[in-house]
What we know:
Rossmann fold; 19 strands; 418 residues; alpha/beta; 12 helices
Amino acid sequence: MIGTAPVRAVGLRSWNALRNLGDAVTAWIVRDLLGHSPVAVAADVPHVLGTGSHLFMATPASRIWGTGVLDPRRTLPPIRPDQIAALRGVRTVSALRERGLDLPATVPLGDPGVLVRHLPEVRAWQAEAARRGPRFRAALVPHWSSVGHPFFTGFPGLGDDVVLVDPRDDTLAPLRALLDAEVVLSQALHGLIFAEALGKPSLWIAEGDDPAARFKFDDWYTNVADPPDAPLPFAAVTRDAFGRARPRTPRVDEAALLAAFPAAATGLDAPDLRVSFDLARRVSPHRVEAAGLLHVEPRRLDHLPADEVRRLSGNLDAALAGHYRGWAERPVTLLIRPGWSIPDGLARRLRNFLEHYESGSLAVVSQAQGWRFPDIEGQRWRDWIVVPGLRLLGDALLLRPDVPAALEGRMDTVFVPH
């Protein structure tokens, strides 16, 4: 542990619409390097915004620690100078000053993701990799939205001496994969930040070169010696490009970044934590039996009175709030009707599907129930039938951690073999 502050619970917020280590790593840094207990909190509770381009999420209760601007053209919420503990890079500082924010010249700079090399688990993996030597010639890191892109799925040598590192992960496992490779080619910003922090030669790659999309990269690279001028387009990336990867040294004052952590402003009354953030992530999707809400015979929410739907939604929110009291973080929740035996592996497949999809929640119904909906036309996805916009209460209901359990919201239905 690098930090010297006393242990305390601190509020934390991040973008968690899906698993993404670049956003999720702050919790590991807060616990293992600073010695605090991170607790995911609501937007109006004092909290830290850490790794990622999260300034658009800021509220009056936020304290910004190494966060950056995502798109300089995008409107930002009001932010006070006293909310800024550290920022990702010079370009974020300039963007905020252009909006009239009076920031001191001494504000610490750097993405906290650069600190991952100090995490105990990562240090052990790094020592192991140094003894054993690399297992792969290269690691490819897509942006989470490009995981299924043909460039990555069809890359020569994939599964042999090239490893695809899926960033949709809220554990530290992707860092181990990076350590196992000689070089790192990354479309994701944090794939590059982690590679540079771990001393791996890296190459920035992209499908195109959109100035707005590259802002966060240019912002980070104000902290790096010998930054690249531009990404290498997918069309130009072959195995020969591995030789273009270069080690790049972050010039971040790590001691100043750690010292700037706003523990005092984001401390919580010591909660009685029963489930730590990493355990919550390991059990995701977490199964909860939903007696009284889900039934053998599916119900269409659109056929229920609006007052009844609001009542069911309020009851569900209250029940989940009680269930997750004492959890440091709410995972993806899989509500299951009593008596329904979920097939092996289905819960994780549902979570993976939801992470590709726009829906706020996902209703799950056995295909054996399909005869009840003769007027419904769906789309086949592998061995499932997907019906966008169909709002059902059936065998199960999958809920994201980042949205309330509002049954009035966007919902899609999948019919699964059973």
